[in-house]
Structure formats: C-alpha cells, structure tokens
C-alpha cells in the first residue's frame, strides 16, 4: 500500500504496438490493447522479470501488465474509463491501467456521494518523479470532492527497511513538502504518521485478530526469521487502508503500483471478515459455495423442464435433473446433488441469506427484527424471501453500524505503470542517472534528461525514414507521465512527430530537458513556500521515539 523507492524505482512496460493518428480509445485487436498515441505503455520487456510474483517489499518488475489481469484478477481500467467523470490524464493515457472494484468510487463522484482516497509513502529516500504519480492521484481525487488521506508509513520503514528514526524524519519532511507543493490541501485532507495515529494502531489490533501467521506466510513469504514488528506493520497497513471508513463506511480507493496488490487483496478479505453479516444468494436451507450456487440457479431456472409442480420445484427433483443434464466440475456437481438429495422434498426457492459472521447476540436479534416480509430464522443465518440483494446489503450494514460494528465496504484500488529508468531498464534510487529526484538541482535534472536513453534509430536518416520508437523511449514517458501535464494534444503531437520521423532525439531531449528544468524550479519554489508553514500542519515531523540498539 505504501510507495517507496523500490516500488517505484522499477519499471518494465509491455510491448503493446501503437499506431499514430488513431482516434482516442480505438481498439487495436492485433495488440490486444487500446492504441491511443499518447498512451504511455511502451518499452521493452524486462529481462528476468517475474510475471507471477508481486512483492510489496521487493524489487518488482512487471514483464507484461496484461498478465496481471489473468493471474491476479486485476480489471482493465479502459473498460471503466467512460464511467469516470473528468478523468485524470494518467487515466486517459493508460498510465493507470488497472483497478479492483473502482466502480463504487466512480459512481460516488458522479452522484456527489461521499468517497475517499488514501495512499501511504514509505520514507526511505528522496521523493522522485515516480512518487509523483501517487501524489497526483491523491490530489486529483481530492479535487473531485473526495476525502483525501496521505500517510507516512514510518512504522513500516523502521520495521521492514531498518531505517533509523532520524532518517525517517528527514525523508518524511521531504515527502510532505512535495505533496503539498503539488497541490494537496491539508485543510481539506488528512496527513498523519502511522506511529502517531492511535486510532490506526487500535484498528490494527482488531484486524490482527482476523489474520494469522500461516496466512501472512502464504501471502508475503514470511518465515521463522521474519520479525514480529514486520508482521505488525502489515496489519498496520491494513488499518491504514480502512481508516477512512472508521467513522462511516464509504467507497475508498487506494492508488498504488501493482506490486502492492497483495496488500489490497488482504485488506479486502479482512474488511469482509470484520463484518457482522455476510449476504449471499441461496436456494434452500443448506449452505452452498459459489460453484454450487451457480448450479442451483441453473436448476431453478430450468424447473419447467422437470418439476411436477414448476411453481414449487423440489430439491430431489433438481438433483436428478442436474445429474442428467449439467456439464460441470465433478466435485461441485456431486456435492450439490448430494445436498439436494438430503433436502428431499424441500422446495427449491430463491432467497437472500444473511450469514452470522461476527455478530453479537444483540446484533443478530436486531437483524431478525429488521428483516421485513417472509423470513426463516436459523441458528446462524436468516433467510429473507422479499428482499433484493442490494437492499439486503444496506440493511445488514445499517444493523451492524447501529449495534457497534464497522460496516466496512471493500476498499478499491487503481494501479499505475512503473516508470522506465532514464538509462533504460528499471528506475533505481541507487543509480542516480536513472531517476530524477524532486529535490534535484534543476540543472542536474536538465543534464539527466539530456543523457537519457531514447527509442531513436541509429542514424537521423533512418529515424526520418522509419520513425522513432516512442513506445520504447524513457524520454517519451517523461512527456506522457509528467511534462505534458493535462495537455493531451501536446502529448499526441510529440508521439506522432516521433513515430512519423519528423522529431529527432536531440531536439526532443532538449525540449524535455527544458520542461523538466521548469518543472523542478517551480516545484522547489513551492516547496520553499510550504517549508515556512510546516509547523502549522497537524502532523509531527520530528519523532521523539526512543532509538533502539538497531538504530
């Protein structure tokens, strides 16, 4: 969930083809992706990239972002883009390429309902242009009317990275200054440190009761050498993710790089486990898993084909029909058929089921009272026959909140591509020439851009004839990710001139270097303005924590 130098130091965009002059969002079937000329997903596949592992503390490199859709269930952002009002240019250009369950956030924007955005920054080094992506995403959501939260993950930095508190304080100040200089409104948003937020730590304690070592071992590859503080930092991050909902449930988005997806999957699981009630579809008195419910729905929909009384199909009849007519995984088919056989003459009938997960006795009784219409009450669930699913979800949440529960909504996430290093390959804080720090002297920023690797041809003549390879160019990424700002027309112009052979690398880098100089000068001027106002912020950037021997 946090952004630190390793997370955004690494980049390996995929090899999607792009064509100049095409209309926005046009689908390129051959490439399997949208082909907008300003989309910033060019570049070469990273050698040795691990396509199947996402490590929040490692040095993640993504060989092919499309693999994330297949392997981890991340959804394509392009499919959602038309539903987002006034989308940020990072969304329009495909830099933000994926999401988990962002639709509730987009709907809240459209309807004027409450929503929130949160991300954390691990203060392990200077903020750089990779971190700016997350800064911009938080600020954009704030400007769309969301409650914005930005946190310094100092506990994580100390436990997972081993930084001293003095180092953390220095880096935290620099992160906060850049966030403010880029436009974060501290009066309308929330800034905090993990170590100073008692509410987050209390929530982490409660969430920790719903997780265990075996689970963290499976997700994060923890072992017997993993220290307890590192494990504690995980549940603290889970608390950070859910913190915006502590007073009231609301759609909440966490903008991150894809390496942070393990945190998001765990946070969504824990949000569900903390709920008093689960709400699901059911067809009979027995419990069924998702695969079994699919078969039950099919049997109910086909009741005219087999039931002696189609208005009242019996479970035993449904079992016989399934065995004779359905092609399904053998385990699921036999399991649900056996349950139907045991139910015998019980009617197969759709209903909404409220499952008792963590409800107190008072909450369960309140739920029974709140369910209107026909219902059946069992020891650990309540079946309602006159409620729609959405209505039931809202009722369960209202009862939970009224009886002392959290009522968390599953947190959403959006994922952005990693930036390619200026020297090619991954961007790394250990290779100064590969990245531009937001603290770099503007002249150094100019020099780094001028020295950057490009996607140009071997000679100017070849470039004029064949065009440049903008999709493989770190300098073009600078235009698409940062230097063009909100000006899509300018980003398109740079792209088309490059691939059309009109733009040569020397002039392109000169223009980019000048724009980078202007950006750094402006950014650092604004940082200086905010530096005099830090004491007015509701965040303590000077830790008084005792230093351990490890420090």
Automatic annotation (TrEMBL):
Reaction(s) catalysed by this chain's protein: tRNA(Trp) + L-tryptophan + ATP = L-tryptophyl-tRNA(Trp) + AMP + diphosphate + H(+)
Motif 'HIGH' region location, chain numbering: 123-131
GO BP annotations, alphabetical order: tryptophanyl-tRNA aminoacylation
Chain positions covered by the region annotation Disordered: 1-56, 447-469
Motif ('KMSKS' region): 426-430
GO CC term (a single one): cytoplasm
One Pfam family, short name: tRNA-synt_1b
Compositionally biased spans, kind Basic and acidic residues: 1-28, 459-469
EC nos: 6.1.1.2
Keywords per UniProt: Aminoacyl-tRNA synthetase, ATP-binding, Coiled coil, Cytoplasm, Ligase, Nucleotide-binding, Protein biosynthesis
Subcellular location: Cytoplasm
InterPro entries: aa-tRNA-synth_Ic (IPR002305), Rossmann-like_a/b/a_fold (IPR014729), Trp-tRNA-ligase (IPR002306), Tryptophan-tRNA-ligase_arc (IPR020653)
Entry coiled-coil feature ranges: 509-540
Molecular function as annotated in GO: ATP binding; tryptophan-tRNA ligase activity
Main localization, broad class: cytoplasm
Function in brief: Catalyzes the attachment of tryptophan to tRNA(Trp).
Database matches in PANTHER family: TRYPTOPHAN--TRNA LIGASE (PTHR10055:SF5), TRYPTOPHANYL-TRNA SYNTHETASE (PTHR10055)
Family the UniProt entry places it in: Belongs to the class-I aminoacyl-tRNA synthetase family.
Protein name: Tryptophan--tRNA ligase
Gene that encodes it: trpS
């Amino acid at each position: 969930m946090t952004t630190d130098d390793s997370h955004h130091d690494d980049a390996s965009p995929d090899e999607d083809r792009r064509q100049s002059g095409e209309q926005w969002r046009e689908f390129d079937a051959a490439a399997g992706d949208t082909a907008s000329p300003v989309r910033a997903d060019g570049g070469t596949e990273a050698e040795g990239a691990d396509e199947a592992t996402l490590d929040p503390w490692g040095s993640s490199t993504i060989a092919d972002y499309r693999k994330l859709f297949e392997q981890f269930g991340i959804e394509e952002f392009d499919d959602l883009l038309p539903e987002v009002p006034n989308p940020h240019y990072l969304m329009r250009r495909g830099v933000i390429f994926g999401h988990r369950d962002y639709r509730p956030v987009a709907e809240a924007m459209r309807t004027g309902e409450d929503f929130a955005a949160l991300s954390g920054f691990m203060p392990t080094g200077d903020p750089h242009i990779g971190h700016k992506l997350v800064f911009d995403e938080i600020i954009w959501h704030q400007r769309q009317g969301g409650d914005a939260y930005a946190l310094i993950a100092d506990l994580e930095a100390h436990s997972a990275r081993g930084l001293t508190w003095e180092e953390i304080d220095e880096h935290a100040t620099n992160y906060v200054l850049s966030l403010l200089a880029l436009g974060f409104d501290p009066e309308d948003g929330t800034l905090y440190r993990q170590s100073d937020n008692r509410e987050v730590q209390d929530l982490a304690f409660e969430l920790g009761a719903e997780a265990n070592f075996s689970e963290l071992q499976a997700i994060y590859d923890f072992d017997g050498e993993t220290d307890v503080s590192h494990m504690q930092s995980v549940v603290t991050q889970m608390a950070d993710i859910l913190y915006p909902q502590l007073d009231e449930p609301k759609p909440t988005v966490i903008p991150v790089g894809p390496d942070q997806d393990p945190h998001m999957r765990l946070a969504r699981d824990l949000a569900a486990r903390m709920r008093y009630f689960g709400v699901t579809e059911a067809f009979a008195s027995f419990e069924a898993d998702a695969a079994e419910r699919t078969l039950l729905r099919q049997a109910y929909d086909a009741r005219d084909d087999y039931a002696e009384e189609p208005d009242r199909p019996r479970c035993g009849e449904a079992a016989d029909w399934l065995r004779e007519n359905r092609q399904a995984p053998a385990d699921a088919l036999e399991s649900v058929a056996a349950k139907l056989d045991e139910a015998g003459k019980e009617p197969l009938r759709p209903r909404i089921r409220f499952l008792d997960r963590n409800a107190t006795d008072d909450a369960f009784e309140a739920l029974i009272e709140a369910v209107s219409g026909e219902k059946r009450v069992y020891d650990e669930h309540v079946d309602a026959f006159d409620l729609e699913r959405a209505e039931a979800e809202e009722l369960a949440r209202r009862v939970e909140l009224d009886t002392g529960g959290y009522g968390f909504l599953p947190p959403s996430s959006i994922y952005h591509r990693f930036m390619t290093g200026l020297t090619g390959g991954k961007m790394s804080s250990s290779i100064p020439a590969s990245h531009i720090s937001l603290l770099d002297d503007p002249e150094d920023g100019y020099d780094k851009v001028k020295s950057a690797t490009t996607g140009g041809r071997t000679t100017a003549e070849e470039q004029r004839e064949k065009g440049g390879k903008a999709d493989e160019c770190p300098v073009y990424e600078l235009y698409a990710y940062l230097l063009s700002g909100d000006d899509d027309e300018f980003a398109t112009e740079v792209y088309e001139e490059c691939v059309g052979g009109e733009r040569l690398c020397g002039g392109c880098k000169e223009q980019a270097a000048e724009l980078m100089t202007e950006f750094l000068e402006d950014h650092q001027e604004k940082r200086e303005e905010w530096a005099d106002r830090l004491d007015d912020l509701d965040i303590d950037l000077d830790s008084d924590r005792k230093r351990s021997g490890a420090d």
